[in-house]
Amino acid sequence: MTPPPSITNIIPTSGPVGTVVTINGANFGPTVGTRTSLVLFNGLGARTNNWSNTQILVPVPAGATTGNVVVSISGIVSNGINFTVTLPPSITSLSPTSGLVGTSVTISGTNFGATQGTSTVTFNGTPATPTSWSAPSIVVPVPNGATTGNVVVTVGGVASNGASFTVTSSGAPIALVQHISKDAGLSNSSSLAFNSNNTAGNWIGVCIRAGKPGQVFTVTDSRGNTYRQAVQFNEFADGETVGVFYAENIAGGANAVTVSDTISGQTLRFAILEYSGILSANSLDATAVTSGSSTSPNSGNATTLTSGDLLLGAIATADTPAFTAGSGYKIEETVPAPPSTKLMVEDMVQTSAGTASASASIRGCYFFSLGRWLQRCHLRYPLERHLYFCHLHRPSELAKSSHGDSKGYLRDR
Question: CATH 2.60.40.10 occupies which residues in the chain?
């Protein structure tokens, strides 16, 4: 006597029409059609994708309603397990309907599910990473590499309707507006004012070198801008801490930046730089730090996805070597002034997307450790606003807040 079919479980137990359901159990028969074999969703037959004696894959059929899923073999019906048929995801609106990469977009609609789980959002096929998810609303930044086209929400393998979104570019190249630096001596906290008013919406980078590893940096300014840490690195051989911080979408007006550390009796040097043309949010892409011994430090390669990234680099040294900027880079600040420099800041804009690395020449210093960070604030297409931090002995990349430490034998920290 042939044993009856038996269902152990179904996965998932709810979903819209089209959701592929896995039915696990026993005695289903080796293939569909060996005997009269059916899968029923609350009485409605479904066409299966795959069938074996212990597992069946079957999409929820059109017209299915909530109720038991059963397997019927030659008229013998298995036990039933409840499946809840939900409505497919549906987008009713986007806000805004156009914007740069990094722009936060609110997707309004229905049936997105209370939590994201395995559900996805794509911009013209490019996956995005939502920051908020609920059944009627999703908030998601426009992802790197996104192009104009439909935004689609997929829940349980079922895609929503598409809603058109236009990815825009600023058209304005990234440009260094102004910069200044300071050797604050043995101060634990020091302020430095820009020579001219900041322009609202611009971006500020702060490159710091402080004596003694283990420092904790705090960066604030008189305009109330919020500073984020791109990278911070402790170098123990000669003893120093290097950091790069940044503020996006800054307030306009006169401004003084204050840098503080936590270990007293150590030197503090820093540079502040204002740039225009950088995206107003999510400008940090990646970070990396390296230390070593060489007169020609190099970060190693990073790959950018969009033309026009700003590469910002910083190298800190324990000695006072003479610096030469890497190919394509320009030295913007040296602190203190040569020949006593212990912090050098350089930058460049990468014309075309692709492999990028940072490098420099150092004379009179052999030990170094540096990191660089790449901030993808597109020159022409701020489509990317992330920072790519690549290993480099010197920083490179847009907002690549890099920092490198070159370690010598000097005791001045």
Answer: 6-86, 90-167
Task: Round to whole Å and give the CA distance between 340 and 338.
Answer: 5
Distance CA 332, CA 348 (A): 10
DSSP letter for 380, please.
Answer: S
Q: Which H/E stretch holds residue 80? A: none
Q: What is the pLDDT of residues 64-104, one digit of tens each?
A: 999 999 999 988 999 999 999 988 999 999 999 988 888 89
**Amino acid letter, 24:** N
319 band by pLDDT with thresholds 50, 70 and 90: confident
- Residue 373 to residue 309: CA distance in whole angstroms: 11
6-86: CATH topology is Immunoglobulin-like (2.60.40)
| Beta carbons within 8 Å of 367's beta carbon, 6+ residues apart | 237, 238, 291, 292, 293, 318, 406, 407, 408
Q: Check: CB of residue 348 under 8 Å from CB of residue 396.
A: yes
Question: Which range is least confidently modeled, 15-19, 51-55, 166-170, 342-346?
Answer: 166-170
The pLDDT assigned to 31 comes to 77
Identity of the residue numbered 65: T
Closest Cα partner for 392 from 291, 247, 263, 274? 291
Whether domain 90-167 has CATH 3.30.930.10 = no
| CB contact burial 372-406 (16+ within 10 A = b; e otherwise) | bbbbbbbbbbbbbbbbbbbbbbbbbbbbbbbbbbb
Cα–Cα–Cα angle for 202, 207, 209, nearest 5°? 165
Residues 6+ apart with CB under 8 A from 183: 267, 269, 335, 336
Report whether 42 contacts 88 (CB < 8 A). no
What is the end-to-end Cα distance of the chain in Å, rounded? 87
